[in-house]
Design a protein that fits this description.
About 30% of the residues lie in helices and about 25% in strands. By secondary structure, the protein is of the alpha+beta class. The longest helix is centred in the first third of the chain and has 29 residues.
């Protein structure tokens, strides 16, 4: 056996009690391995993926179970698959037809790394299955088709200093793991040097592409670091803090476990800005690696990682493992089992004393009423610092998501197969809970956010406020710089008294007359939304046991009260990503219903005020919104002693609440 797994670890697992978490995880892995190796081929008849998109995790599972059980039939399956892989052409190792083949030198792609990692698993964990001649053939393929192709990509990225994203980290893992397996000292040194470049993609507490793609980077950087440690590399030479610091972001973004019809199982729901599925959990190996390797340096983060692992990985969740390979419906691999007993003690977000309002450099502000038995979560794209990496972003600045109980009510579309027109629709600002600006009857599009560690871009969405005012949370952001010189102000204010009351106020100022269109995307997955339009300005949505009253309560153009029109659109709400079209995770048109309030007249200054009252469906009729004689708009609770008042006076928002008094916020 090689250095990926030790004999002592196998013996520890075999001695572990049958009711232990280690044995529970192992039973899950053994069961899926038996399903995935019944047929003498890599892709089973029940699979929906192509072979290079499941090859690493499938081989990883099989080689570990063989190392524990020494099954003759499983060994034969591993041997056959490994020799098939190493005898493929170099072109096959690069991946599907649409990958760049390189000119003049061939260059690796994502699939190259995954294939190389799969073959490395067989070489290290199951070398007894092969003759010395076959092992030499395997090592040659690891070098020529794995390490060298991955090196070409990494060298090109590092030397050109133009574009860098998760691809670099994924392919670096292929290069570095191959180098460690081959014991190529020079290549190992280069890989470690490049890990420090890769760590620069991370912010101090999150990652710029999306939460889903952060995990795709994490699983590869953490895997490379883990196998390097197992090879004997000093951990002090490695950069592991970059992904460790993200655990509060993951904890704040996790909402709840809930049954999902498309997969007929429990699945974790997570806040999902950009290209991210509504189903998301960090890869188990990332959580185990952090919690065991970083528990002395980062006690809180290590405890949160253990809590996430225990919360998100158990026998009640039967998420398909074939979708794990590209990090989208994530699973655990065998390092989770091996490291489990070394992990820190779990710390829930409440035990870790995480704030109810958390702010992250990538732009997310996540507010909830409380951590225990949460009733409302509001997540806002509300201003970011210059990005170290940007791919997979949507046109979603100043957008937000609203979760009531266990219902995602105002929702982000997520993403699907990139070659579908529905993906392009999902990226557009019209599919997000933001606002758009119109001129001469045509929309002015937000500029996309760009920039990376090689090319810093200016910040286009700046946070104006993020503060408590008594019991009220005030968050505000301005994205005028995303529109060009004509727009002087493009601000959104969220004024929240959670879990029940919220104002959303949009303000646009321009040198020339423009229109304002505020849009709200409501979750209609499985046609479970009940929408009632009591008037063009007063909408009530019911989903499950939860309800939302959404009113457009006031509109002003150039200082005068003005009219709006209520319009409709349809969009997509995707459950999870799949590389291929026509799969079950892909949302149908109309799974998101969009309600838009659009200015009837253009002007140089537009103001729009929306009120949101949310509660259980059985209580929603008791909530009211009134315009008082003193000019304040009041969200009125069933309890007359609880309310939230807002008024606009000049360039100020006046906030009034019981038990506190009156405060002013400037536009």
């Amino acid at each position: 056996m090689g250095f990926f797994i030790s004999d002592a670890e196998i013996q520890e697992l075999q001695r572990a009690p049958q009711n232990s978490k280690q044995q529970e995880l192992y039973r899950i892995m053994k069961d899926r391995t038996e399903r995935n190796t019944k047929e003498d081929c890599l892709v089973q008849s029940s699979d929906t993926q192509e072979w290079y998109h499941l090859v690493w995790e499938r081989m990883s599972d099989a080689t570990f179970v063989w190392a524990v059980e020494r099954s003759e039939s499983l060994g034969r399956w591993i041997r056959n698959r490994t020799l098939e892989l190493v005898r493929l052409s170099q072109d096959d190792w690069i991946g599907p037809w649409y990958r760049n083949r390189g000119d003049p030198k061939p260059i690796g792609a994502l699939e190259t790394s995954h294939i190389a990692l799969a073959v490395c698993e067989a070489h290290e964990n199951c070398n007894e299955l092969f003759t010395e001649e076959e092992l030499q053939e395997i090592r040659s393929a690891i070098r020529d088709n794995g390490m060298n192709l991955c090196r070409e990509f990494c060298e090109k990225t590092a030397s050109e200093r133009k574009h860098i994203n998760n691809w670099f980290v994924v392919i670096l893992n292929g290069f570095g793991t191959c180098a460690l397996v081959l014991d190529d000292k020079e290549a190992i040194e280069q890989a470690i040097e490049w890990t420090h470049l890769a760590s620069g993609l991370y912010n101090s507490n999150d990652y710029g592409e999306s939460i889903q793609y952060s995990n795709y980077s994490n699983i590869h950087l953490a895997h490379l670091n883990e196998v390097a440690i197992r090879k004997g590399i000093n951990p002090n030479e490695l950069e592991m803090s970059c992904y460790t610091k993200m655990m509060p972001w993951y904890a704040a973004s996790f909402l709840h476990n809930k049954h999902i019809d498309s997969l007929d199982t429990l699945a974790p729901r997570t806040l999902n800005f950009g290209d991210s599925g509504a189903i998301f959990r960090p890869s188990g190996d990332v959580l185990a690696h952090i919690s065991s390797r970083m528990k002395d340096r980062f006690k809180r983060e290590a405890g949160l990682a253990r809590w996430l692992l225990d919360t998100l990985y158990d026998e009640t969740s039967n998420l398909p493992d074939e979708l794990a390979s590209f990090g989208f419906v994530n699973q655990f691999q065998y390092h989770t089992i091996l490291l489990y007993m070394q992990m820190a003690q779990p710390l829930s977000p409440l035990q870790a004393t995480l704030s109810e309002v958390m702010t992250f450099e990538g732009g997310h502000v996540i507010a909830r009423d409380k951590w225990d038995d949460t009733r409302a979560v509001v997540a806002m794209a509300a201003g970011y610092q210059p990005y170290n990496v940007t791919s997979h972003r949507h046109l979603d600045q100043c957008s937000f998501q609203l979760v009531i109980g266990k219902e995602r009510m105002l929702i982000d579309p997520g993403h699907c197969c990139y070659r579908l027109s529905s993906q392009r629709k999902s990226v557009d600002e019209s599919s997000h809970n933001t606002f758009s600006i119109w001129k001469d009857g045509k929309p002015l599009k937000q500029k996309s956010v760009s920039g990376n560690i090689f090319t810093e871009s200016p910040v286009g969405n700046e946070r104006l406020y993020n503060q408590w005012v008594g019991d009220v949370i005030v968050v505000a952001s301005d994205m005028a710089k995303l529109y060009g010189d004509i727009i002087k102000k493009a601000s959104r204010f969220w004024i929240m008294k959670l879990p029940h009351m919220m104002f959303v106020i949009d303000v646009v100022e321009a040198d020339e007359p423009v229109g304002l269109c505020s849009h709200f995307v409501v979750n209609n997955r499985n046609n479970e939304l009940n929408a009632n339009i009591y008037s063009p300005n007063r909408l009530v949505f019911r989903r499950g046991e939860e309800a939302l009253k959404l009113f457009e309560i006031y509109s002003e153009t150039d200082g005068q009260k003005s009219d709006t029109s209520l319009e409709y659109d349809w969009t997509y709400v995707h459950d999870f990503y799949h590389p291929l079209p026509n799969q079950i995770g892909q949302g149908k048109e109309g799974s998101g219903l969009t309600y838009l309030w659009k200015s009837k007249n253009e002007g140089k200054k537009q103001i729009r005020i929306h009120t949101l009252a949310m509660d259980r469906e059985i209580h929603i009729k008791k909530w009211h919104v009134i315009v008082r004689e003193d000019g304040f708009i009041r969200i009125e609770s069933p309890d007359p002693n609880e309310y939230l008042d807002v008024s606009i006076q000049g360039d100020e928002i006046i906030i009034r609440q019981p038990h506190w008094g009156t405060d002013r916020v400037m536009f």
